[in-house]
């Protein structure tokens, strides 16, 4: 037994070192790319701003948390140690130090996945699971963003590991630890809250041979332990705002985005219906005035509107849920400004052949089916996977949201590969043939195209950001190339596509005018004005951009331009 444990620890150490090396190499290269300039993701800006506010104290806080609070508090802990207090955002050391720490968090997640697979499927599956987790492309990419994805994944995996050990040892400390980790995971992302009722039902229904008092006691331990971190956040929200918000005030809005009248299955830019209900208001700062609805009231209003839409057209909602299921299990990594496929050109680690969801999902689903014969033993893994799926079928699907689900599928996939190897060694051709046929069908389901979703979705905004970054760096040639690519690219899911495309034409015209190509510059300004005619609404940014384009066109049009 001691030799076996020693081997497992050595394998775990090797997995951690491999995962850490890949992530450090990616972050080192990617942090020098134009995509890292100014933090493209609005969520990253919010977390950075919250972390700095927490460092300065929350004496002026008057609003409940808008987004999950654990990650900004973790960032604040890093900033308080390494930040440069005299430097302006984003030119301080804090975010970069956080990215290096996230490399370690990602490596630890790979080790935890390996140990879960060790316990459930054996040493071979544990090694496979750890190696796949170490090299899994979406894990590496999201570990390199100033986002809570890596922290959420680690806490969910630690909760799963604690549940596996609690089910195996059946002692109260493991149930207490599982509950506390569940509470932390919920504070990191509210969707983990669904796992609480799931654990209670699992204990009460799947362990019926045990006395009901014991099962009820275990369920109570998990609940009480989980309520500690969640209760602290609730108490803070109530104290600073007088508003009883459990965790975050954006829950109703997210439900509306996922299930409301305009829902597409993934994120879309929802117009601000009430003051303070969007992320932009919390980034720029706003003051809630007397008579304005409270944050919890706004969340309830969004929820009511979404429920009305569901009740008015149940068939539409069923079709929407099927689309979400396809998005959840589809090959494409759907993002907003986090575009994995675009980022490959700035990271050699991401451009290497490595495991992707297209590989992991079919094998994982096969392993999920094969594991039904051991459902009781594997039930914690099924429970976490099912609760994750339900959470995002209720909300909306993004690639970064399904990382925990992908981790469960990686573990199932390792179990499936171990089973296939055993059947091959035993010469069981019939079992192998049936498994291969099932695998082919699952691969077709995962790879089947989804209307409106493709790898280049949203690249227009990426090119626009890269062009701005090259301008700031003084590389005018690369900036012009980026803006030229942007005007013909896809800007989804943003609704102000016309304004963004016209902005690219304005940049392009200025660069061509600067290089002496005045005729081409005039053509770009005209193209920009034509693009702007498709803009919806009367936004101040649109009016300002229109004035700039018209002034540039008139200035060049009044000058004789040679052939």
Please tell me about this protein's structure:
With 563 residues, this protein is mostly helical. The chain folds into 2 domains: 2-243 and 331-404, no CATH class; 459-557, Tetratricopeptide repeat domain (Serine Threonine Protein Phosphatase 5, Tetratricopeptide repeat). It has 25 helices and no strands. Helix 2 packs across helix 3. The longest helix is centred in the middle third of the chain and has 30 residues, at 212-241. The radius of gyration is 26 Å and the shape is globular. The N and C termini lie far apart (84 Å). The model has no long low-confidence stretch (mean pLDDT 87).
Provide the fold topology.
Layout: H1 2-30, H2 42-55, H3 70-82, H4 93-121, H5 123-135, H6 137-143, H7 149-169, H8 172-188, H9 195-206, H10 212-241, H11 251-259, H12 279-284, H13 295-312, H14 314-329, H15 340-343, H16 348-351, H17 357-370, H18 375-394, H19 403-426, H20 429-447, H21 459-473, H22 476-487, H23 497-514, H24 518-532, H25 540-557
Helix pairs in contact: 1-4, 1-5, 2-3, 3-4, 4-5, 4-7, 4-19, 5-19, 7-8, 7-18, 8-10, 9-10, 9-18, 11-13, 14-18, 17-19, 17-20, 18-19, 21-22, 22-23, 23-24, 23-25, 24-25
Oligomer state of the chains in this structure: single chain
Strand content: under 5%
pLDDT < 50 runs, ≥5 residues: none
- Helical content stands at over 70%
Count of β-strands: 0
Structural class: mainly alpha
The 3D shape can be described as globular
Task: Calculate Rg over CA atoms.
Answer: 26 Å
- How many domains comprise the coordinates? 2
Order of helices and strands: HHHHHHHHHHHHHHHHHHHHHHHHH
Helical run tally = 25
Q: Please, what is the average pLDDT?
A: 87
Sketch the major β-sheet. Answer: none
For the termini, the CA-CA separation is: 84 Å
């Amino acid at each position: 037994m001691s030799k076996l444990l020693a081997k497992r620890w050595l394998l775990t150490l090797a997995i951690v070192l491999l995962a850490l090396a890949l992530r450090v190499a990616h972050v080192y290269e990617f942090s020098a790319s134009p995509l890292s300039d100014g933090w493209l993701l609005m969520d990253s800006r919010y977390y950075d701003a919250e972390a700095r506010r927490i460092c300065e104290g929350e004496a002026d806080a008057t609003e409940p948390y808008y987004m999950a609070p654990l990650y900004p508090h973790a960032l604040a802990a890093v900033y308080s140690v390494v930040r440069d207090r005299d430097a302006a955002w984003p030119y301080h050391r804090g975010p970069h130090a956080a990215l290096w720490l996230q490399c370690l968090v990602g490596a630890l997640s790979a080790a935890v996945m390996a140990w879960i697979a060790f316990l459930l499927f054996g040493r071979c599956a544990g090694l496979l699971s750890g190696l796949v987790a170490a090299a899994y492309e979406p894990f590496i990419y999201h570990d390199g963003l100033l986002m809570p994805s890596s922290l959420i994944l680690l806490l969910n995996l630690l909760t799963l590991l604690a549940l596996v050990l609690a089910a195996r040892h059946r002692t109260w400390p493991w149930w207490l630890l599982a509950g506390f980790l569940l509470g932390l995971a919920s504070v990191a992302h509210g969707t983990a809250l669904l796992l609480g009722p799931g654990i209670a039902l699992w204990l009460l229904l799947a362990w019926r041979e045990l006395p009901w008092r014991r099962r009820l006691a275990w369920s109570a331990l998990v609940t009480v332990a989980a309520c500690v971190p969640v209760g602290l956040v609730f108490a803070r929200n109530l104290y600073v705002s007088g508003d009883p918000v459990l965790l975050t005030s954006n829950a109703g809005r997210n439900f509306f985005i996922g299930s409301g009248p305009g829902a597409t299955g993934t994120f879309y830019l929802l117009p601000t219906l009430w003051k303070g209900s969007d992320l932009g208001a919390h980034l720029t700062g706003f003051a809630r005035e007397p008579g304005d609805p409270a944050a919890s009231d706004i969340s309830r209003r969004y929820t009511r509107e979404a429920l009305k839409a569901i009740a008015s057209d149940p068939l539409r909602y069923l079709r929407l849920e099927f689309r979400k299921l396809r998005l959840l299990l589809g090959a494409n990594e759907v993002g907003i400004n986090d575009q994995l496929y675009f980022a490959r050109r700035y990271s050699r680690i991401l451009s290497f052949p490595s495991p992707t969801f297209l590989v992991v999902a079919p094998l994982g689903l096969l392993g999920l089916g094969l594991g039904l014969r051991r459902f009781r033993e594997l039930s914690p893994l099924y429970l976490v996977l099912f609760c994750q799926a339900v959470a995002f079928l209720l909300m909306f699907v993004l690639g970064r949201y399904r990382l925990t689900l992908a981790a469960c599928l990686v573990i199932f996939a390792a179990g499936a590969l171990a089973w296939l190897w055993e059947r091959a060694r035993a010469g069981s051709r019939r079992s192998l043939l049936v498994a291969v046929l099932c695998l082919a069908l699952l691969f077709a389901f995962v790879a089947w195209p989804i209307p409106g979703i493709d790898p280049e979705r949203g690249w227009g905004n990426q090119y626009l950001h890269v062009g701005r970054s090259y301008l700031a760096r003084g590389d005018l040639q690369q900036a012009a190339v980026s803006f030229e690519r942007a005007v013909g690219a896809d800007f989804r899911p943003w609704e102000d596509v016309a304004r963004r495309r016209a902005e690219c034409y304005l940049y392009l015209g200025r660069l061509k005018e600067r290089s002496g190509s005045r005729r081409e510059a005039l053509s770009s300004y005209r193209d920009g004005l034509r693009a702007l005619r498709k803009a919806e609404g009367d936004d101040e940014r649109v009016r300002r951009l229109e004035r700039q384009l018209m002034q540039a066109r008139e200035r060049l049009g009044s000058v004789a331009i040679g052939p």
